Amino acid sequence: MSAPNPDRAHSRRVSSRLPVFPWDTLAEAADTARAHPEGIVDLSVGTPVDPVAPVIQQALTAAAGEPGYPATAGAPALRASIIGSLRRRYGITGLPEHAVLPVIGTKELIAWLPTLLGLDAGDLVVIPELAYPTYDVGARLAGAQVTAADSLTQIGPRRPSLIYLNSPSNPTGRVLGVEHLRKVVGWARERGVIVASDECYLGLAWDAQPLSVLHPAVCDDDHTGLLAIHSLSKTSSLAGYRAGFVAGDPWLVAELLAVRKHAGMIVPTPVQAAMIAALDDDGHEAIQRERYARRRRKLLPALRHAGFAIDNSEAGLYLWATRGEPCRDTVSWLADRGILVAPGEFYGPKGAQHVRVALTATDDAIDAAVKRLA
Ligand SMILES: Cc1ncc(COP(=O)(O)O)c(C=O)c1O
């Protein structure tokens, strides 16, 4: 390959602002795990493994012949299904039709949210200390500043433009209590700060009951400045469809819609149809939740018996586990047993002694992991 042309440095202007893709650093541990005589059990990523429910697949294919452009705002039936599911599943009330908007998976929305809201170098985005990496990526894409803080006092005198919440958390499974959520909402409201609450794992609760930022007990029925971000990837195993939505402050949602219309950020018609089927049917969601609950009931005691302490992990798709040693040592220890997990340092320096163990593996793979840990 010829040497890179210095005149083309401009072509990396954006990617050079972004962090190194951390998963590349897991290659050696992955090779070790793959060399296990019975094969790898990959618990390093949160990708669903169970087939999409037939009711959703049928809705997708039934819409496959639709030739026209879909609405960026979402079909009226989709908006109604979003509002209905948020009310039934999470007790969220008072959302008008124009307060919800479908997105092409929530990673897309999170990566572009600061840009879509017009944030730039003068703006500060606050993210959790242990966090899904795309919050930071989105701020960097907009050229905004980022700080990691789990408490309001850590933020200091500066007024952020946007603050992220993520309860239940990826990676820790921590659930923020109603008082914590109320405090953040009140603090943000006094200062005109937007709160984006990533509620990707809200439907996967085990030992604690998480609440949406839009729940009346949190926001007193006032959605001003609040955005709740919901994914269908985990609760309905639709990661491959790219399906999510944002709901909350109608003024903010209208602004997002106005920009997204111009930018062509449109959810395809068959995916909109599949989303309606998924949001109208609570049965497949309950089945999926029980699958993860079953896998968690096996894996959690197996890790404890193998000498791990499990912190938080009261909800969501991960066990936040530690052996009180550097996380890369734990990754290697598990890789020697054919099990691949994610080092906690991927999510922030506070994760230096933890690993994230995903529940997203088949029952057979979970059984194999349990056997190897014994
Ligand atoms: C906390 C969190 N938010 C958002 C996402 C993105 O989900 P999707 O883009 O599939 O909707 C993930 C995916 O793992 C996640 O863990």
Arrangement of strands in the largest sheet: 2-8-7-6-5-3-4
Give the percentage of residues in beta strands.
5-15%
Average pLDDT across residues?
Answer: 96
How many domains make up the 3D coordinates?
2
What's the architecture of the largest domain, going by CATH?
Answer: 3-Layer(aba) Sandwich
User: DSSP helix count?
Assistant: 13
- CATH topology name of the largest domain, in short, is Aspartate Aminotransferase, domain 2
The whole-angstrom Rg is 21 Å
- The end-to-end span amounts to 49 Å
Family: Belongs to the class-I pyridoxal-phosphate-dependent aminotransferase family.
InterPro entries: Aminotransferase_I/II_large (IPR004839), LL-DAP_aminotransferase (IPR050881), NHTrfase_class1_PyrdxlP-BS (IPR004838), OxyQ (IPR019880), PyrdxlP-dep_Trfase (IPR015424), PyrdxlP-dep_Trfase_major (IPR015421), PyrdxlP-dep_Trfase_small (IPR015422)
Enzyme class: transferase
Cofactor: pyridoxal 5'-phosphate
